[in-house]
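Hi Y.,

Following your request, here is the sequence exactly as I used it, all 433 residues.
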Amino acid sequence: MKRRDYYLYTDLNKKEYFTLPEQWDPLYFLETASEETHTSIMEMTIEALNNLRGIPPFKQLFSEAKSISIIIDDATRPTPTREILKILLPYLKDHGFYSEKISIIVALGTHEHMSRQSLEAKLGSDVLSAYRIIQHNAWDKDLIPIEISKKRKIVRINQFVAKADLRIGISSVLPHPMAGYGGGPKIIMPGVCDFEYIRDHHMENVKHPKSIAGTIKGNPFHEGILEVAKAVGLDLSINCVYNQKGEVIKIIAGNLETAFEEAVDLCFEKLGYRFEEKVDITITSTYPHTHGHQIFKGLHTPDIITKESGAILLIAPIVSPIPTDFLNSINTIKEKSNQNPVQYVKDALSKGIPILPDKPMDFNMAMSTMFLRPKIRTILVSKNSSKEVADKLGFEYATSIEDGLRLLKREFPKARVAVFPTGGLIVPITSRS
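Below is the corresponding structure, written out as C-alpha cells. Let me know if you'd prefer a different format.
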C-alpha cells in the first residue's frame, strides 16, 4: 500500500499535510529522517569558535585589532544570527571588544532596508539598542574604492567594512541558482558592494552554463564573488549548514575559503539529490525562501525535474508579499518588448545589460527567471497573495493544497510525482553539475 501522508514545510517545524490521489505514483519524496537530533545553535557556535578552520585561535586572531565589523545577512535568509551573536559578542567582549569598538553591518546588497521590527527579530532588542547597526546602501556616495588586482577593476564597499581592522561574516550556505551556493563570500559581494559593480558582475556571468546551483568549480558567478571577498578581506567566516528540514545541523567557522568549502561539502552531502528522470507533477514549498519575489529561487529544482507537459503546485509561505513595484515592472517589460518579453530578456542578457536598469539586481534576476523559466503550468498557493498577483506572475491560483490537487487531478488522472517539503533546500545533481 502506497504512503499517502505527505507534507510540506511552511515554516521551521511547521508542516502542512495532504493526501495524493490514488493513481498518482510518488517517485521522489525528499524528507529528513525524524530520528536526527542536533545540539543547540549556541552550542554549535561555541564548538565552531573553538575549532576555527585554517586560521589562528580566537585570541591570536584578534590580538592587534582595534575595531571589528560583523557582517550579517538580512531577513531573506534563515541564518539564526540572534543566537550566534549571543555567543560571539561575549567572546569579543572577553577579548576587549566592547560595543563601541564593534559595528554590525546588514549586508543588503541591493535588497530593501529592514524595518526596526525585522531588525529586532534578527538581532534581538538588546543588541539593537547597544550596538551600532548599519544597513548597507549600495548607492551610497561614501563607499570606499578597492582595486581587484587581477581584473584591474574597482569595487566600492561599505565604509564601516573597509575601515575595520577585522571583519567577521555570519551567513547561511544554501543552494543558489547562479552562485552555486549562497553564504560565505556572498556576505561581501554583493552584500556590501556598490550597485554598479554588482550589476556588471551579475549581468556578465548569469548566462554562463556553469552558473548553476551546486557548482562552484569553474563557476564564474561564484569566482567573481570570491575574488572580491578576498580583496576586501574576511578574517572570520561563520557558516551555517542545513538539512532538508531547514534545521541548522552544523556551524563551521574559520578562513574565508577553508570554512566555506567545508560548509559546501557538507551542504552537498545533506541536500544533494540525483534525479534520474523527470516527473509529471512536482508539489513543492518555496521554504526557506519566504520573502516576496525570492520565491522564484524555490522553483529552480522543480523547473529542472518537471516535464514541460507537466505541472508544478507551488506553495509559497511568504511572510512579505510580492512587491507592487515588482508586479508593475512586469507590465513595463511587456510594454518595452512589444509583448515579446522572452526575446527582450534574452537579448538583454546576451548583451550583458540589466532588463530593469534602475531596479535592484534581485528584481532583475527574479524577473529573468520568471520570463525565461520553462513553460510549465504552475499553480500558486499562498495565503499572503491573491489570484490577481498569480495572474501577473503567469501562474494559476489555488486557495489550498487540496484545491490545487483537485485542479491537477482532472488533467492528470495518473501521474508520476515529486514532493519537496522544502523546495529551496535541494542541490539538484544533473549532467550539468
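The domain at 41-270 is CATH 3.40.50.11440 (Rossmann fold).

Thanks again,
Q.
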